[in-house]
Design a protein that fits this description.
This protein is mainly α. Helix content is about 45%, strand content about 10%. It is built from five helices and five strands. A three-stranded antiparallel β-sheet has the order 3-2-5, covered by helices on one side. Strands 1-4 form a two-stranded antiparallel ribbon. Helix 2 crosses helix 5. GO terms for molecular function: DNA binding.
């Protein structure tokens, strides 16, 4: 807790974006539902807008996009050490819709799709478990069909 109070630059808040810069670079997380103080790890960037030009949910999806992943791939091409430097990150050229309303609309559509995917993945997992149980019953002779 003491470290949190000492340096406001490492304080993490709800609505912040976190981006890994060491090892597996480019993993992104949107901070939500944080209930107590949290600080950054040295292997993570805190991504915050310098201006109010974009909303965090929109930027989350930009950093999750294949366009950003391709940018990271180009940076690490030929390198054996995976590290993302701030000087390289600022070179990423991105399109930002001119209005926050459009950004919110884009982020909303993508969020809804993520919710649908999550729901379907849970359903798939449930059916895989049911199938596994049925296989155990049917293929061991515990349950006979005829």
């Amino acid at each position: 807790y003491n470290r949190y109070e000492q340096d406001p630059n490492i304080q993490v808040s709800n609505g912040d974006l976190l981006l890994t810069k060491d090892g597996t670079i480019g993993k992104v997380a949107y901070v939500a539902d944080l209930t107590r103080p949290a600080t950054l790890n040295s292997g993570v960037f805190l991504v915050k807008p310098i201006t109010d030009a974009y909303i965090a949910h929109f930027m989350f999806y930009v950093l999750e996009s294949s366009v950003f992943k391709d940018f990271l791939q180009q940076l690490s091409a030929g390198s054996t050490i995976n590290h993302l430097y701030q000087k390289d990150l600022v070179k990423f050229d991105l399109y930002v819709p001119p209005t926050k309303e459009e950004q919110e609309a884009i982020a909303g559509i993508l969020f809804d799709m993520d919710s649908d995917i999550h729901r379907l993945e849970k359903k798939l997992s449930k059916y895989q478990k049911i199938k596994q149980g049925m296989m155990e019953e049917l293929l061991t002779g515990k349950v006979r069909l005829m």
